[in-house]
Amino acid sequence: MPQLTVTEKPTIRSICVFCGSSKGNKPAFMEKAIAFGEIIAKQNWTLVYGGGSNGLMGAVAKSVLAHGGKVISIIPEALVAPSGDMLGEVLIVKSMHERKRMMAEKSDAFVGLPGGFGTLEELLEMITWSTLGIHSKPLVLLNTHGYYEPIRQWSDRAVESGFVIQSARKVFT
């Protein structure tokens, strides 16, 4: 008789959040960022993020701190001055690549909130790393106002067109 294996859910202690350093043009973007920060703190997770106090990034971090949570800011030297006040434990690194590597090392899961090109690049790198077997951590897109719907559609089209394997498409929800 075959043995059944129970797969345990990974223990989440830290969440890396990728999101915009701008607040966007819909109040719901900021509202969801603040609410998600509260959830992170109440779950006793540590927020790992790109540092700074501006936009959605700052809103999530300030909310985590306001609700008694822990924050780790990882920021490249070149971005220290334009990022505003530093929040939580601040780790300054040499480059953007080192920042992403350290964010991945210090996180048990990744969440993408709305953002611009930098946010998209960070998310796509984590998706790529997962498909290459570099990590197997959960990745979730917070699809406020359908913000990430075009990415989901593109991913489905890439699978249908034979450029992405189905299992890779399932990396994020």
Give structural notes.
40% of the residues lie in helices and 16% in strands. It has a single domain (14-144), classed as Rossmann fold (3-Layer(aba) Sandwich). The protein is globular. It is of the alpha/beta class. It has helices at 27-42, 55-66, 96-105, 117-131, 149-160, 166-169; strands at 14-18, 46-49, 70-76, 89-93, 109-112, 139-141. Helix 1 packs parallel to helix 2 (55-66). It has six helices and six strands; from the N terminus they run E-H-E-H-E-E-H-E-H-E-H-H. One of its GO terms (biological process) is cytokinin biosynthetic process. It comes from Piptocephalis cylindrospora. GO terms for molecular function: hydrolase activity, hydrolyzing N-glycosyl compounds.
Task: Provide a compact summary of the structure.
The protein is an alpha/beta fold and 173 residues long. The chain has 6 helices and 6 strands, in the order βαβαββαβαβαα. It has a 6-stranded parallel sheet, with helices on both faces.
Helix content: 25-40%
The tally of domains stands at 1
Q: Strand-and-helix sequence, N→C?
A: EHEHEEHEHEHH
**Tally of DSSP helical segments:** 6
Query: Which strand order spans the largest sheet, edge to edge or round the barrel?
Result: 4-3-2-1-5-6
Proportion of beta-strand residues: 15-25%
Distance between the termini: 34 Å
Write the CATH architecture name: 3-Layer(aba) Sandwich
Radius of gyration, taken over Cα atoms and rounded to an integer in Å: 17 Å
How many runs of DSSP E, i.e. beta strands? 6
What does the overall shape look like?
Answer: globular
Protein structure class: alpha/beta
- Poorly predicted regions are 1-6
Largest sheet: 6 strands, parallel
CATH domain fold name:
Rossmann fold
Classified by CATH, the class is Alpha Beta
- What integer is the average pLDDT? 91
InterPro entries: LOG, LOG_fam
Keywords: Hydrolase
GO molecular function, one term: hydrolase activity, hydrolyzing N-glycosyl compounds
Organism: Piptocephalis cylindrospora
